[in-house]
Amino acid sequence: MLQALSVSGEPPDFCRGVAREHYLQVQRWLAQQTLQSLQARHEEAELLFRRVGITFAVYGDDDGTERTIPFDIVPRVFPEHEWVKLQQGLQQRVQALNLFLRDVYHEQKILKAGVIPPEQVLGNTQYRAAMTGVKVSLDIYAHIAGIDLVRANHGQQEGEFFVLEDNLRVPSGVSYMIENRKMMMRLFPDLFSAHRIAPVEHYPDLLLTALQQVSPPTQHYSNVVVLTPGMYNSAYFEHAFLAQQMGVELVEGQDMFVDDDDVVYLRTTQGPRRVDVIYRRVDDDFLDPETFRADSVLGPAGLMRAYRAGNVVICNAVGTGVADDKSIYPYVPEMIRFYLSEEPILNNVPTYLCRKPDELSYVLANLEQLVVKEVHGAGGYGMLIGPAATRAEIESFRQQLLARPDNYIAQPTLSLSTCPTFVDAGIAPRHIDLRPFVLSGKEVRMVPGGLTRVALKEGSLVVNSSQGGGTKDTWVLQSTGRGGR
Question: Which positions fall inside the Circularly permuted ATP-grasp type domain (predicted)?
């Protein structure tokens, strides 16, 4: 384990010990720093993030509606060969998930073959019957996927990456990936220039291309918009950031309307302008008051009519949530085998389905050792981390499990890998995960990097920003070509 940099400014053991080859230059750089200089850069980063407006909202927070996500100044580094394997595995997984979504809303071959129990899909709260038989452009449902990865820290799987979660509805965090890179280049140009780092700043260009590629056939330039719930949404900064970076309009539901020909238009000062592609950051239930929640004002009435008519493309597609539900997650390896006739490159974390009586019995007998999650939960809420829970918390969760076993899954508590992190005492190890972003258009593409999230509390395994987690810049080292500057 890494030891914290002492308040006297002595280098941490990390700087004196043995580092992996791709971390050697970071190790040497850290050995030359003092606690005071690192603290000054840390404070400068926080000030710059707040000035730029890089904040997120925490609902129910008594200290204020917005805060910055803590940014860690020590980068996470990947060697190129390691990243290549990850990329291949992520592209394979997203391809299979798109094939699954196309199948369950059309022929349902995987259900008829008995690979996945039909009730797990058709009875899922994220399954949208309104999407049955709807033809979507290029058969792509998940245009933007944020796949959460964790790395085992010991045992037979040490060093191996596992997929923890598939985020296919409205995955967030990519703006922090880009802004973290800008911050590192600004604060530490010497460290940055000492490495050949693959760039990530072209992500908005790749995103715009992917969105334009799925546009309906049109005689005019494809008009893409970003649909936001509004400025009080927790990820509003990201909505505005991506719209600005792509050079497209940021809109709310009231800014659009659907005419009698089932065509979506944007209200402008020059008159109505047709909308071809909507990159939506609004949940399914609020997209169209005609089809879903009648009290919603976040999407234009009639949007689903236009969608079914093929006059507009919604990204990600309505109904993608059924593929990233935690009760469907255990079946993704079988999806890969079923649709692609390939073995999964990336494995799932072993998962117990509490709806199965034998697996529920095991979970109930081993709650102190497991992580238990709600199948529809997110943001680190609705979960039990057995080793860190009190007896009262475990017993309370036991009752919840007995009352609604179908609402939970359980997984072993992985010894997650750690990364050197700047904390109050200096440099210390903290647990991390990784969310790369995978884009699907005419091809599946991604930038070499992602959002590394870090659990800043000592010993914590929860990396979510709403639970006190922070973020790091993620470096993929290049053996050839230009660096990231």
Answer: 75-455
Please give the pLDDT value at position 414.
Answer: 75
Q: What distance in Å separates the CA atoms of residue 44 and residue 119, rounded to the nearest whole number?
A: 53
N- to C-terminal Cα distance for the chain?
32
- Listed as ranges, residues in the chain with pLDDT below 50 are 1-16, 59-60, 64, 156, 482-485
Range of the domain at 356: 350-412
Say which CATH number the domain at 379 has.
3.30.1490.270
Q: Cβ distance 469 to 454 under 8 Å?
A: yes
Q: How far apart are CA 215 and CA 313, in angstroms?
A: 6
**CA 26 – CA 21 distance, rounded (Å):** 10
Residue 428 lies in a domain: no
Query: 149, 145, 167: which is closest to 82 by C-alpha?
Result: 149
* CA–CA gap between residue 466 and residue 470 (Å, rounded): 9
Looking at residue 462, its pLDDT comes to 72
**Among the listed residues 317, 346, 351, the one whose alpha carbon sits nearest the alpha carbon of residue 331:** 351
Residue 394 maps to a domain: yes
User: What pLDDT sits at residue 300?
Assistant: 97
In a domain, 252, yes or no: no
Cα torsion at 447, 314, 317, 252 (round to 10°)? 90
Rounded distance, CA 121 to CA 101, Å?
A: 10
